[in-house]
Amino acid sequence: MLLGKLKEYADERLASRLPPLYAHTPVAWIVMLDSDGRPLSPQPVSRIDASMTRGKRGLDMVAPEVQRSAGIKPLLLADNGEYTFGRARDPAKQDRVDRAHAAYRDLLDRCAAATEEPAVLAVKRFYERGGAALLDLGTEWDYGLKVTFEVTFEDDTRQRPIDLPAVQAFWLAVNAPGGDASDQCLVCGENRPVLDRLQSKIKGIRGGQSSGTSIISANASAFESYGMEASRIAPTCRECGEAFTRALNSLLGDERTSIGIGDATFVFWTRGAVDFDLGTFMRDPDPGEVQALLESVNKGRHGVVRDDTAFYAAALSASGGRAVVRDWIDTTVSGAQDSVARWFGLQRIANPRSDDPMGAQPRPLGLFQIAASTVRTASDLPVTTPRSLFRAALQGTPAPMGIAYQAVRRCRAERGVTRPRAALIKLVLLSQEAQPPKEDSMVALEPEHPAPAYHCGRLLAVIESVQRAALPNVSATIVDRYYGSASSTPAVVFGALLRGAQPHLARLERDRPGAYAGLQRRLEEVCARIGEWPATLALKEQALFSLGYYHQRAHDRAEAISRRESQDTTNETTAKAEKETRS
After folding, report:
1. Do the beta carbons of residue 408 and residue 484 sit within 8 Å?
2. How far apart are CA 281 and CA 296, in angstroms?
3. Which secondary-structure segment (H or E) carries 64?
4. What value does the mean pLDDT of the chain take?
5. Per-residue pLDDT tens over the stretch 153-163
6. Taking a C-beta distance cutoff of 8 angstroms, is the pair 425, 442 a contact?
7. Contact 370, 423 (CB under 8 A)
8. Cα separation of 481 and 476, whole Å?
C-alpha cells in the first residue's frame, strides 16, 4: 500500500522528471576539458559552498546515482575522487581503489564505444593523456567528493557528458535488471524483470546512514522469504522502485511534507493539491491558524462540504542502512483536519507564566514540544513516543497511558509540572474517555472535580504558596523535597506538610492578615474536597495530581496578576485625581 501510494505520488504530483537512475546529488568539482581531452585549467572548478551544510560536499547536480554496497560499482562520469582519479584517501586501501578506478575506466570506454559522443570521447582521451597526472590537485584534495567533466568545443559550445541523452540511455541499459519477465512487480502488478537490489537509496530518515537507507532489503536468512534474498523479498521492477524512492526523497526533502523528531521521521501527502499544511501545524503551530482550523472544522460539522481528498502519512525510522516503516495512515483531508483540531483542543491548557495570564490564549504546542516533555533530553526520546502521538493527532485514536506515565515520571524527577507536560497529561487522559469531553474540560482549575487525587495536587500548590508568602526568599520549597512522595503516597506526607504550614500561617496572620485569610480559606476548601486521604495513587491518579497542582498554580498566578493590574489602575486613577485637584 505505502509503495503503491508513493509511486502514485511520483506519477501524479512530481512535475519535473529526472532521467532514469539520475538524482540530485552533490558534485564538488568539474574538470574542464577541450575536445582533445586536454585540461583547460590544472585546477578543477570548485562547486563547494561552505556556508551551507549540504554545500560543503558540493552543490547539487542531476547526475547518475545508484545504490552500491561494499562491492565496486562505478557511477558513470560523476563519481568520487577515488573512482575518478584512482587515488585513495587511505593508502592502505590503494589496491581496492586501483580496482575501482579500473572499473570506472572500463565503464567509460564502453560508454564511448556505445554512444560515440564527442564529449565522452574527450574524457576518454583525457585518461589516455595521463588523467589525474595532468591536474594539480594538491595534497589537501578530498578524494571522497564527487567529480564530473565538462567539454568545451572549438565553437565555444559546452557539454557535460552526463547531460547527453545517449549517455543517459547507456546508463539505464547498463543497470537494467537481468532475468526474464516472469516475476510480478508487487507495486504495478505487471510481469517484468525485478531488481535484485533497489537501485536508489532513501535520503533524510533520521538515524540512518549518511549514504542513505533501503526501504526493501534483507541480508540474513531470518529476513528472507521463500528463498528470495535482498530486494527480491518484495519483488519490484526498476520503474516502480525508482518512482517510489524518488517520491519518498521528495517528501523527505520538503518541510511541508515531513517532520523529524528524535530518531522518528514522518512524511505526509495528499492525492491532490489542498490547502492544509500539516507540517506547520505539527512543527510550529500558529495560534491564529489553529483557531481558524478549529472554526473550519466546526463549520464542517454543520453542513459545509467536506474535503474527501485522500491523505496519507507514514512514520519511519532507520536501523543502520535500512528504513523501518513503523506506521501507515490512510485517511482523508477532512478526517485529518478533524483529528488535528481535536488534538489541539485536547492539549489546550492554562499558561502559568506570569507574563502570559490565563486570560490570554495559550500558544498551541508542536509535536516535538509535547513528545520531548516526557524525557530529560531530546536524545533520550524513544521512537515509539512521537509515533504514538502522531497517530493520535492524525486519526483521533487514544494516546497510550504509558506516555502519560513517562510525563508523570518526569514531573516527579524534576519536582514540578511544565505546561507541555501538563498539556500532554491532559491530552492522554481526555483521549481515553469514551465520550468527547466538553470544550473547556480540564483547561483551567476545576474546584468541583470529583477525584481526590486532583485536589491533593491542588493542596500541594496551596501549601507551597503559604510557604512562599511567609518566606519570599526561600531557596528550596516543599515541592522540591516532597513532590514525589506527595504524588504517590499522600496519606503519609500531607499530615506533616499541613503541620509544617502552621508556623507560616501564624506569621502571615501577624504580618499580612489579608494574605493569611485568603490562603487559610483556600486550604480549608481544598481539604474539604479531598475527604478521606488516599493511601496511594495509581498512574491515572498521579496524572490527575499533576494536573491539580498545575491548575492551582496557574490560577493563583492569574489572580495575582489581576490584583496587581487592579492596584495599578487604582493608583493611576488616584494620581490623576490628585493632579486635577492641584490644578
Report:
1. no
2. 15
3. strand 59-64
4. 88
5. 999 999 999 99
6. no
7. yes
8. 8
Rounded to whole angstroms, the Cα distance separating 299 from 175 reads: 54
Distance CA 120, CA 123 (A): 5
| Spatial strand order in the sheet of 322-332 | 258-261, 264-270, 310-319, 322-332
> What is the per-residue DSSP string for 485-549?
HHHH-HHHHHHHHHHHHHHHHHHHHHH-HHHHHHHHHHHHHHHHHH-SPPS---HHHHHHHHHHH
**Cβ(31)–Cβ(126) below 8 Å:** yes
Give the cell for residue 250. Answer: 521528495
For residues 293 and 316, is the Cβ–Cβ distance under 8 A?
no
How would you label 472-504 residue by residue, b for 16+ Cβ within 10 Å and e otherwise?
eeeeebbbeebbbebbbebeebbeebeeebeeb
Closest CA to 347 of 293, 420, 410: 420
- Residue 230: CB atoms within 10 A of its CB come to 17
Q: Which helix (H) or strand (E) holds 314?
A: strand 310-319
Q: Which three cell numbers stand for residue 555?
A: 490560577
Pairing status of strand 29-34 against strand 146-152? parallel
Q: How far apart are CA 371 and CA 388, in angstroms?
A: 10
CB 497 within 8 A of CB 461: no
Q: Which three cell numbers stand for residue 295?
A: 472554526
As a whole number of angstroms, the distance between CA 157 and CA 578 comes to: 87
- Distance CA(69)–CA(579), nearest Å, equals 85
CA angle 163, 168, 172 (to 5 degrees): 155
Asked if 24 and 200 touch (Cβ cutoff 8 Å), the reply is no
Crossing angle of helices 384-395 and 333-347, rounded to 10°: 110
Q: Fill in the DSSP letter of residue 367.
A: H
pLDDT of 567 over the 90 cut: no
DSSP 228: B
Dihedral, CA atoms, 471, 474, 476, 478, nearest 10 degrees?
A: 0
538 CB burial (10 A radius; 0-12, 13-18, 19+): exposed
Per-residue model confidence (pLDDT) at position 575:
65
Residue 460 is placed in which grid cell? 500541594
List the alpha helices (DSSP H) in 33-157. Answer: 81-85, 94-115, 118-129
Instruction: Tell me what the mean pLDDT of segment 513-534 comes to.
Output: 92
